[in-house]
Amino acid sequence: MPELSLRPVAEADLDMFRRFLVEPGLIGLDWTGFRDPQAVRRRFDTDSYLGEDNGRLIVDVAVETEPGKESAGLVSYRKRHHGAQGFCWEIGIALLPQWRGRGIGWRAQTMFCSYLFEHTPVQRIEAATHAENTAEQRSLEKAGFTLEGVLRAAEFRAGQWRDGYLYSRLRTDPDPLTD
Questions:
Q1: What's the pLDDT score for residue 83?
Q2: What is d(CA 106, CA 129) in angstroms, rounded to the nearest whole number?
Q3: Fold adopted by 4-123
Q4: What is the pLDDT of residues 54-95, one digit of tens each?
Q5: I need a surface site. Which of 20, 23, 133, 170 has the fewest CB within 10 A?
Q6: Buried (b) or exposed (e) across 132-154, using 16+ Cβ within 10 A?
Q7: Domain range summary for the chain, segments of one domain joined by +
C-alpha cells in the first residue's frame, strides 16, 4: 500500500478544491450543484483552511514510480455541538477518482482521527455517509467507526430527500493502525 501523510492546505491545492465545486460528479454523491469557485481563494486567504470550528488537511500519497508525493484529496473537520457543554468533530473525506478503491480512504480517516485526538480534547468524532455509499461505509468501519443509526431524510440531493448513516469513533476505541 502506498505511504500516506496529512498536511495543511497549500496554494497549489486550491485548483483541486475548485474542481470539486465546478465539475459535476468529481466529488461523487456529494455533488450539490455548482458553487462559487472564488470562495476557495477567499477561505484560503482567511485561515488557510485551519479554522477553529472547521477546516481541511490534504491527503498526500507517495507515488511509487516517481519521487515525491501526489495529492489524492482532502479530509475535513467541522465542530458539532451536543448539549450545552460538549462538542465533537464531524469529519469527511473527498478523494480524486483515481485514488478511490485503493485502501487510501480508511487509512487517511484513521490517521485524521489520531491527529484530532492528539491535538484536541474531543472525546467523539462523527462521520455521516449516504445510505447507498457502501464503499464509504466499509471504509468507516475499517477506520474504527461504529454505525449508530439512520438519519432519515437528512439530505436533499438530486431532487429528493435521502437517508444517511451516522457513524462515530470515541477516543477510547481501538486505533486500527496500531492494534
A1: 83
A2: 13
A3: Aminopeptidase (3.40.630)
A4: 999 999 999 877 777 899 999 999 999 988 888 999 999 999
A5: 23
A6: ebeebbebbeebbbeeeeeeeee
A7: 4-123
